[in-house]
Write a structure and sequence with these properties.
- The structure holds two protein chains of two kinds.
- Helix content of chain A is 0%, strand content 50%.
- Chain A is built from no helices and five strands.
- Chain A has strands at residues 2-7, 12-16, 22-26, 38-42, 45-50.
- Chain A is globular, with a radius of gyration of 10 Å.
- Chain B has 16 helices and 13 strands.
- In chain B, the strands form four sheets. Chain B has a five-stranded parallel β-sheet. In chain B, strands 4-3-5-6 form a four-stranded parallel β-sheet, sandwiched between helices. A two-stranded antiparallel sheet of chain B has the order 10-13.
- The chains are: A mainly beta, B alpha/beta.
Chain lengths: 54, 371
């Protein structure tokens, strides 16, 4: 998923899936996170940074 | 390659398939296990096995989270869901897994308040919205989803949500692999290592496979080119007489894993002495439960859980499919009594289950072969 907006205080990020769906994602395990970065998300939690696509 | 269409490029795929062909010895049969259900899904969806030489066989492993949940555990979940005031939450796939007397979906139809969620955080939100109800999250999955449950439990405690608890059925990937390697009825030449589990645990936990059992492991991504390259790397090791853990999925998997995720899991979970796996029986130190520090959020402490043990239906051969002993289409009820619409076994439920993946994609290629 691609990061759109980050709420550092709550360790959450608004992310967009490849199909356009938006989802709020827990980012505590991969912070710091910046908009436009790609994350691997499982069960609502980002578990890894993705260096490239897909 | 960088973009998704390149990872699915047919020309590149054929080029890697050509390299694979050049690495295999005629007359030798290669059995490679893809550990993860996500790989099984991709292999059938993209017809990857059609690109392999006839003497390279892919065997499906135990890495589908839904498939390995035993019927008794589903019955336990249904028993909790039927208790007064409970809102029982679980992932969508879990709703259709058959227990001995129906699924969670059927229990919902019969009146239990069972809700599908996408993440444990959704379950926590439901708990905050319903302070007069007890909200239970049925946690399943390997080390990919366990960190999400662990973080949610930490949030629940930090935010003081007393009506939230977790029925933990998380499992770990290494013990079943060791059990399979010890199995006398399965000879494997190498492993396509689980890509997403490895983002959390890293590559190190798989080092025992080459060291103790002399089999190569290549951690691979999930796109067609990833899997083909993973197979090529295994065969290259075998051809060179090498045997080690390699990481094809470096763009996502660091060798040491996600240390923060491992720390959170270590704080919240501990290993059960043993846990029952569908088809594989009881495997020691393979399941997770909440630590003493999180006992107040443990649904198995808070509620009466019957701890039911149920044998699989005789017709269902999920156990043999999960161990890679038979292929999905060799099961007696595959595609007849057991279909994705009316599954008998767990392997026909989830998209990561070998039977469902084969039913949805692979059987057409086989039908073409038969014709």
């Amino acid at each position: 998923m691609t990061v759109l907006r980050v709420d550092e205080g709550r360790e959450l990020a608004l992310c967009a899936a490849d199909d356009g769906r938006h989802e709020t994602v827990e980012i505590a395990l991969v912070a710091p996170v910046r908009p436009a970065q790609r994350l691997l998300v499982h069960a609502g939690t980002a578990i890894a940074h993705q260096a490239g696509q897909p | 390659v960088r973009f998704v269409d390149e990872f699915r490029d047919a020309e590149l795929g054929r080029a890697v398939a050509g390299q694979i062909l050049s690495l295999v010895e005629p007359g030798r049969h290669y059995k490679l296990m893809e550990v993860c259900g996500g790989h099984t899904h991709s292999i059938y969806k993209y017809g990857i096995d059609d690109l392999l030489p006839a003497n390279v066989e892919l065997v499906h492993g135990p890495g589908c989270p839904v498939c390995v949940i035993p019927m008794g555990r589903v019955d336990d979940g249904i028993a909790v869901a039927h208790q007064d005031g409970v809102i029982f939450t679980c992932f969508g796939d879990m709703m259709r897994v058959p227990g001995s007397d129906g699924s969670l979906l059927e229990a919902k139809a019969a009146g239990a308040d069972i809700r599908m969620v996408y993440s444990p955080l959704d379950a926590l939100r439901i708990a905050k919205q319903n302070p007069d109800r007890e909200v239970v999250f049925f946690a399943i999955g390997f080390e990919t989803t366990a960190p999400s449950t662990a973080l949610t439990l930490k949030r629940a405690r930090a935010e003081g949500v007393p009506n939230f608890s977790v029925m933990c059925s998380h499992v770990t990937i290494v013990p079943p692999l060791r059990a399979l390697l010890e199995s006398p009825d399965l000879r494997l030449d190498g492993f396509i290592g689980p890509g997403h589990v490895s983002t959390v645990v890293g590559a190190r936990p798989f080092e025992f496979i080459p060291v103790d059992y002399g089999r190569p492991v290549v951690i691979s991504g999930f796109e067609p080119l990833d899997i083909l390259q993973g197979i090529e790397m295994i065969l290259r090791q075998l051809a060179a007489g090498r045997c080690e853990v390699e990481n094809q999925y470096k763009r996502v998997v660091p060798y040491e894993g996600n240390l923060r995720a491992l720390e959170v899991m270590a704080e919240v979970f501990e290993l059960r002495p043993y846990f029952e796996w569908r088809g594989l029986g009881f495997i020691s130190h393979s399941g997770l439960k909440l630590t003493e520090a999180y006992a107040e959020l443990d649904a198995e402490v808070r509620f009466s859980v019957p701890g039911i043990r149920v044998a699989d239906p005789k017709a269902c051969q999920c156990g043999e499919v999960l161990k890679g002993v038979i292929k999905p289409w060799e099961c007696k009820v595959f595609g007849t009594a057991c279909t994705p619409e009316r599954p008998i076994g767990t392997c026909m439920v989830s998209s990561e289950g070998a039977c469902a993946a084969y039913y949805n994609f692979g059987r057409f290629a086989r039908e073409r072969e038969v014709v």
